[in-house]
Input
Amino acid sequence: MKRRWKSLAAVMLGICILAGMAVDVWADDGSEKGYTYNYDYWGDISYSPDAYRTIGVYTSVELGLDKSFSSAEGMYVKDNSVYSCDTGNNRIVQLERTDTENFEVVRIIDSIKGDTDVKTLSGPTDICVTDEGELYICDKGNHRILKLDKNLNYIMEFTKPIDSTFDQSTDFLPDKLEVDDVGRVFCIADNVNKGMIKYEADGSFTGFYGASPVTYDWTDYIWKKLATKAQRSALEAFVPTEYDNLYRDSEGFIFACTTNVSEQGVDSGEDEPIRRMNMLGNNILIENGNFNVIGDVYWGNAGGYKGPSLITDITALDSGIYFAVDKVRGHIFGYDTQGNMLFAFGGNGNMDGYFKLPSAIDHMGNDLLVLDAQNASITVFTPTEYGNLIYQAIAEYDAGDYEASGETWRKVMAMNGNYDQAYIGIGRALMRQGEYHEAMKYFKLKWDTTNYSKAFKQYRKMWVEEHIGLIFLLIFLVFILPMIVGKIKKIKWEIDTADIFNDRT
Output
């Protein structure tokens, strides 16, 4: 019997060894080793505990819909309600969150009431809901932006501006929108590359918002001079949209993202996949991290795709932490207000937490919701203990409780000893408490030269103030005293060598 158990143990041990070898081979071939990751100072991928976990994936079946989501493009979260633009079915599905894991359909919006000739939706691509319950809808197929009251009664519509800056022969195709507190509408429309279209609350067009600075390209000039009329017409027929999506944060600033980027442009910093714009349309996004806010830093072949991340949507928590989703690799990137990547997760696939073609992202509290156009589903994520600790540490720091923030960052570091932001967070907390020398140690460990310099300057100032007496004593002994002694010696020499003291013969 003992021999039989020994044989069985040997077989199991052999299987484990072979499995270990298989894992090692799989790990070395460049495949993804984990779900949640980040990048260290050197740009190498560092895997970590999961910051988010999947609550559920909700399809038409789970929600009890009569038809599956079709080409779903837009999503908006307001309080406990989720508005999903079921674009291919010409409707908007309103969901209500009843508890942590359950959603129910409360309304299907496919027609409107009131004084308008067209009472049905056609290919709605985006929606925004105000605090008063008013709905703004990109009714793309009907070439308009609708404004409805909470009972779906028609109020007004925003149409193509009658302006020389618009080609009046083309259709108005509104794709994405946001509305500010006074009713101004910011719209991204197909074939408009001058920035976002800006309307006042009364529907009047007031110009463009957030347009990129215009640069003169000599190659384009030469090409247009040499091209035939037909070639120029074909070139002008294709006008790339400048932005893909936008989001208005809790402070009133507008985030915008674009997939109109190139490898060279992202490498050089010329292309900006994510912007945060003030009321003048100027980009004020802070990028103090080791890398620019571009999504993935390493562009290896993932899912057969090479090149930079293509950011298709963005959302921002009330804390200022914002998230962007890459439509080609299915990755979600979380950043703090300084542009440091906190973590990234997701990927391409059919498993829970993975995507085929993510088209929109939004949040409910700290939970994240992702709309997948190809999988026809909404995936809901909630923070893990690890993710909540990161949020807690940031919130404590922002509230001025630096001692508590440092302790919370130490808990994060205990769960992930390679996490750069934990070291930097502890260093920043120590610096705020006046522990500059100790803070320098943590900044040095993670090559944070900017914060190290700040801590060093403060430490130098504090050291000088504490040792000012010794410094003056040293200055006196090294510089002033030798000068005095030298002066005395010179006077004595002059006296000793003066003629008046010499013997006269």
